[in-house]
Amino acid sequence: MSTHQNYLTTVIRAPVISEKSTLQAEVNKIIVFKVLKQATKKQIKDAVELMFNVEVDNVNVLNVQGKQKRFGRTLGKKSDWKKAYVKLKPGHDIDFSAA
């Protein structure tokens, strides 16, 4: 495995499992992932194709701002993160329940 492929395996952090993302997956074949903040659309596409053996149609990214939280007396802020909406080509699917 090359160093580029090693980097691609670290690009995807975790799938985002929520009501909205589950509905998107069922209706439009769009899977939502939490990814590295510095990852590009091309890197995300290559990482999904490498890890799940599927073909990706397109990728949309969204920068999520961290929320303000109170920790006891002090105010704090959660970290910012990046979300990727990955649309799969027809005939391809990722099943997380079998993994």
Automatic annotation (TrEMBL):
It holds the Pfam family Ribosomal_L23. InterPro entries: Nucleotide-bd_a/b_plait_sf, Ribosomal_uL23-like, Ribosomal_uL23/eL15/eS24_sf. Coiled coil: none annotated. SUPFAM superfamilies: Ribosomal proteins S24e, L23 and L15e. One of its GO terms (molecular function) is rRNA binding. Keywords: Ribonucleoprotein, Ribosomal protein, RNA-binding, rRNA-binding. GO terms for biological process: translation. It comes from the Bacteria. One of the early assembly proteins it binds 23S rRNA. One of the proteins that surrounds the polypeptide exit tunnel on the outside of the ribosome. Forms the main docking site for trigger factor binding to the ribosome. Belongs to the universal ribosomal protein uL23 family. Part of the 50S ribosomal subunit. Contacts protein L29, and trigger factor when it is bound to the ribosome. This is Large ribosomal subunit protein uL23. It comes from Methylomicrobium album BG8. The gene is rplW.
